[in-house]
């Protein structure tokens, strides 16, 4: 299913749903960031997706990272809770979702990079090279918060 992200756009459609999503800033022992190239909007992103019934948020992010990248992770911290009413995601089935994502930090423990139906490319990226990627502003905020030296989680 394709999606269109609207951010601070007065012509954006009004949200008609809200779903808990999770994401993770995963860094390897060289400090590189695990990034995917999304199939649904064509942008670079940290891995993540929707939480399912019966999961905790940390279980959901471990599952999502493995599904999208082939990498098993352990959750190490909380970057924050991101829910900006000015960021809505319109899907081709008519759903217009308000962003609500819990973002974690995580360390890789095993696995091999691979793509999935949600990721057409997966790679470890040097933090200085992230600026060369097409990353949505809401994901940039998560990355910046995760790479910064913040003592408290972010929340809106």
Concise structural overview:
The chain is of the alpha/beta class and 156 residues long. Helix content is 15%, strand content 41%.
Spatial arrangement of strands, main beta sheet: 6-3-10-7-12
Distance between the termini: 28 Å
- Order of helix and strand elements from N to C terminus: EEEEEEHEEEEEHE
Number of DSSP helices? 2
List segments where confidence is low: pLDDT < 50 over at least 5 consecutive residues: none
| Strand fraction | 35-45%
For the secondary structure, the number of strands is: 12
Instruction: Please state the overall shape, judged from the principal axes of the Cα atoms.
Output: globular
Largest sheet: 5 strands, mixed
The Cα radius of gyration reads 15 Å
CATH homologous superfamily - what is it? Nucleoside Triphosphate Pyrophosphohydrolase
Kindly provide the name of the CATH class: Alpha Beta
> How many separate domains?
1
CATH architectural name: Alpha-Beta Complex
Q: If you average the pLDDT, what whole number results?
A: 95
CATH structural fold name: Nucleoside Triphosphate Pyrophosphohydrolase
Helix content: 10-25%
Q: What structural class do helix, strand and pairing data support?
A: alpha/beta
């Amino acid at each position: 299913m394709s999606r269109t992200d609207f951010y601070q756009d007065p012509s954006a459609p009004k949200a008609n749903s809200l779903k808990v999503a999770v994401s993770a800033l995963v860094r390897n022992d060289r400090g590189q960031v695990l990034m995917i190239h999304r199939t649904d909007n064509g942008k670079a992103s940290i891995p993540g997706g929707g939480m399912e019934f019966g999961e905790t948020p940390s279980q959901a992010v471990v599952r999502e990272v493995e599904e999208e990248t082939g990498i098993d992770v352990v959750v190490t911290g909380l970057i924050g809770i991101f829910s900006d009413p000015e960021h809505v995601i319109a899907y081709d089935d008519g759903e217009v979702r308000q962003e609500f994502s819990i973002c974690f930090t995580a360390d890789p423990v095993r696995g091999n990079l691979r793509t999935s139906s949600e990721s057409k490319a997966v790679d470890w990226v040097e933090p200085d090279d992230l600026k060369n990627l097409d990353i949505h502003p809401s994901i940039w905020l998560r990355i910046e918060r995760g790479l910064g030296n913040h003592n408290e989680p972010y929340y809106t």
